[in-house]
Design goal:
The protein is 46% helix and 12% strand. The protein contains 16 helices and 13 strands. A hairpin with a 3-residue loop joins strand 1 and strand 2 (38-39). The radius of gyration is 27 Å and the shape is flat.
């Protein structure tokens, strides 16, 4: 399977230019290494319990109940309510129609999505009824009446929910910090302060350095941010620039994170803050499909490990006969959120001591490597034991390649955004590897590919990478 070499150029790549992808001077605010087994973060503030979906789910249920109740006998009944209601709830949830919207959420923006999904639910249900219980078939007139009734009812209920939320947001605005260049952030914060209808009250600016201007305080250190979040009960962080490290930091505090301006701000007309395009930055743990990612790992890694058992035994025997006892090589690597785990590989050479194992970068041309070790590395068969790491949950099949703590600390200082690649589980293969970024290639390029993969993750993306990895195994070039 695709893996990267432990051989790199003498220099691990060019130094990142200031300001590329994040604010100059804010790198020191990113979580730093501490303790024995993870990257240090400030004490986690639990996110408040949110039941924002309950009123919207209730609106869906009541609208379906009303529509079914208007149907004549023998069409109406609990069975029909459960069929239509189940379809509507599943479809609306999948479309994100139960997620808490912004303070300016409007039912007219949601109308096309609501109408389409209600139409699908009623059409599928009517077709199923006609196929399996013809005596209860729903006629065209009754079907249209039920559909229209549900749509009007759900729009009225959701409009009431949005109105109540706007009133509550205006009466009790949430404290927020604005992250960005102080000059631009002051203008944006002033606009929000003058328009409380958005439900956000700026209390400070997170910038590279204080600019001496009166008004909102500028926070430029991790300690100042920590104090401001606690003292002002900050619940929102609004970003005027992309900075994954800071997004992770505020999400760790339990804050809702928003991206204002920039490209790719597609959404409903109401998704704005006083004319600034705005979208919610969803924490990785809340993204739909991550459970499916773990399921894909288990479903594929389990059978693969079982099928590879004869190959594993042959590799272990070859290593034992060639290099002596100790066929498995165990090495500490950095995983998701900085958690350390023990990575398994077949031993291809025996390092002089633990220090060499942890800090020596290149072993590709080491004379101590036996022919068996060289073959295992070239064919990537030495990586097969990592399927056990996948089953254990230490790794995923697809993700950024894990590195040793010593080099994670070095590269995090040199390359902007390197630590951000630990936002998702590390993997056996990844987007960087299938683009040829293995062996003597730029660490900066790998970092950029890894973060792009995380920011645009989807389950289909994982499947594509696995297929490309499988195709690459036909013509292995070594690891």
């Amino acid at each position: 399977m695709t893996t990267e070499s432990t051989s790199v150029p003498p220099s691990p790549g060019p130094w990142p230019s200031a300001g590329r992808g994040k604010l100059p001077g804010l790198a020191s605010l990113a979580p730093q290494r501490a303790g024995s087994d993870r990257l240090a973060l400030p004490p986690r503030r639990p996110a408040p319990l949110r039941f924002a979906a309950v009123p919207l789910i209730t609106a869906d249920v009541l609208a379906v109940l009303l529509a079914v109740g208007l149907l004549p006998e023998p069409q109406r009944g609990l069975w029909l309510f459960l069929l239509v209601g189940g379809c509507v709830l599943v479809l609306d949830a999948a479309a994100g129609l139960h997620r808490p919207g912004g303070a300016r959420a409007a039912v007219l923006d949601e109308l096309p999505a609501l109408a389409a999904r209600a139409g699908v639910a009623w059409s599928v249900t009517a077709a199923a009824v006609a196929a399996f219980t013809p005596e209860r078939v729903i006629g065209p007139g009754a079907l249209c009446t039920a559909y229209a009734t549900q749509l009007v009812a759900v729009c009225a209920a959701r409009a009431a929910v949005h109105a109540l939320r706007r009133r509550a947001a205006r009466a009790h605005p949430r404290s927020a910090l604005v992250v960005g260049d102080p000059a631009a952030a002051r203008g944006f914060a002033s606009a929000l302060a003058q328009h409380p209808e958005y439900g956000i009250r700026p209390v400070g600016i997170v910038g590279a350095r204080p600019d001496g201007e009166p008004g909102f305080p500028v926070l430029s250190s991790a300690e100042e941010i920590h104090r401001a979040v606690i003292q002002n009960t900050v619940r929102d962080a609004v970003f005027l620039t992309d900075d994954p490290s800071m997004v992770t930091l505020f999400q760790h505090y339990g804050c809702a994170t928003w991206r204002v301006g920039g490209e790719g701000q597609d959404g409903a007309m109401g998704d704005h803050l006083w004319g600034y395009a705005c979208r919610r930055v969803v924490p990785l743990g809340e993204r739909p499909g991550l459970t499916a990612k773990r399921a894909l790992d288990v479903v594929l890694a389990g059978p693969a490990l079982a099928l590879a058992l004869p190959v594993l035994l042959l590799c272990a025997l070859a290593v034992r006969l060639s290099d002596g006892p100790g066929v498995l090589f165990r090495q500490e690597r950095v995983g998701q959120n900085g958690r350390l785990f023990t990575l398994l590989k077949f031993r291809t050479l025996r390092p002089a001591d633990e220090t060499e194992s942890a800090t020596r970068w290149s072993v590709a041309n080491d004379g101590r490597m036996s022919p068996v070790g060289g073959f295992l590395r070239k064919s990537s068969l030495d990586e097969l034991p990592q399927l056990w790491n996948v089953l254990r949950g230490d790794m995923s099949l697809v993700g950024p390649r894990p590195e040793r703590p010593y080099f994670v600390a070095q590269f995090s200082r040199i390359h902007a955004g390197y630590a951000d690649r630990h936002r998702m589980p590390v993997g056996l293969t990844g987007l960087a590897q299938v683009h040829g970024l293995r062996g003597d290639t730029s660490i900066e390029d790998r970092c950029r590919f890894d973060n792009h993969y995380i920011d645009h993750w989807s389950l289909w993306q994982d499947v594509r990478i696995l297929l490309r990895t499988a195709a690459g195994l036909v013509r292995p070039t070594g690891s």
